[in-house]
Amino acid sequence: MSQKDIGNKIPIYKLKAGKEVEDYYDEWTIENKYDKDMVDWKYSGPQETVTLFKKHNSKKEIKILDAGCGTGLVGVELKKNGYLNLDGADFSQKMLDLVPKNIYENLFKIDLNQKVNIADDTYEGITCVGTFTFGHVNPPALDEMIRICKNESLICFTINIGIYEEYGFDKKIKELEDNNSWKIIEFIKSDYIASKGVNAWLVLAQVTK
Ligand SMILES: C[S@@+](CC[C@H](N)C(=O)[O-])C[C@H]1O[C@@H](n2cnc3c(N)ncnc32)[C@H](O)[C@@H]1O
């Protein structure tokens, strides 16, 4: 199957953006269906991302934002690996409501496609898993992530392979390298949701602003 057809593999990939996506996630939480589906689908994005982040950062006290944290699967993984100073952000309140207690210090309900109300140079690391995908969050969000990170922070994120070129992530990543906003340290293919035939690029960048 060509990566272009990935949009038909999972119902949410057919949605356009904004409210439609938010409502879908809100409903996906009923009876904990999102978390159950991720177990059934053997979703490996959170573990793969945290493993890569940890490979390049052993300082456990750094302040990390989990952007598009959903129900907290990445936060749980970060915490398991000793990272203790975590905030989470997502635009679905119902996903945020399912985050286990004691994972994040702060939870923000924000739209990552807008300028976010977070000060410059707040974080020392960002994880963003499953959020750069069909109809979700677009490349300009990467500018905001760099803005709210201190210099030398690591940003570790997945991009669904099906949208990588179509949504202009290839160009954005190059632009940010060309203007010395970051350097790409790792760019690898993630299994992601292999059981559904959906893969993602897993990227680790270091802020160099
Ligand atoms: C596939 S889920 C991934 C959640 C979590 N990172 C994980 O790995 O389980 C994508 C998340 O992105 C959030 N999302 C989608 N578009 C968003 C936007 N524009 N702003 C903030 N969050 C958004 C959804 O609400 C959902 O929680």
What are the salient characteristics of this protein?
single chain; 209 residues; alpha/beta; Rossmann fold; globular; binds S-adenosylmethionine
The structural domain count equals 1
Name the helicity range: 25-40%
What's the level 1 CATH class? Alpha Beta
Percent of residues in β-strands? 25-35%
- Taken in chain order, the helices and strands follow as HHHEHEHEEHEHEE
Q: The CATH topology, please?
A: Rossmann fold
Mean pLDDT: 94
* CATH superfamily heading: Vaccinia Virus protein VP39
The main pleated sheet reads as: 7 strands, mixed
Ions and ligands: S-adenosylmethionine
Provide a short characterization of the protein structure:
With 209 residues, the chain is α/β, with parallel strands linked by helices.
Topology:
Blueprint (H helix, E strand, L loop, with lengths): L18 H10 L4 H8 L4 H12 L6 E5 L5 H8 L4 E6 L2 H5 L8 E4 L13 E10 L8 H8 E12 L8 H10 L3 E12 L4 E10 L2
Parallel strand pairs: 1-2, 1-4, 2-3, 4-5
Antiparallel strand pairs: 5-7, 6-7
Helix pairs in contact: 3-4
This protein binds S-adenosylmethionine (SAM).
The site of S-adenosylmethionine has 21 residues, from helix 1, helix 3, helix 4 and strand 4.
Q: What can you tell me about this protein's structure?
A:
- With 209 residues, this protein is an alpha/beta fold.
- It has one domain: Rossmann fold (3-Layer(aba) Sandwich), CATH 3.40.50.150.
- Helix content is 29%, strand content 28%.
- It contains seven helices and seven strands.
- A seven-stranded mixed beta sheet has the order 3-2-1-4-5-7-6, sandwiched between helices.
- Strand 6 and strand 7 form a beta hairpin.
- It is globular, with a radius of gyration of 16 Å.
- The structure holds S-adenosylmethionine.
- Residues 21, 25, 45-46, 68-70, 73-74, 90-92, 95, 111-113, 129-131, 136-137 line the site of S-adenosylmethionine.
- S-adenosylmethionine (SAM) binds next to helix 1, helix 3, helix 4 and strand 4.
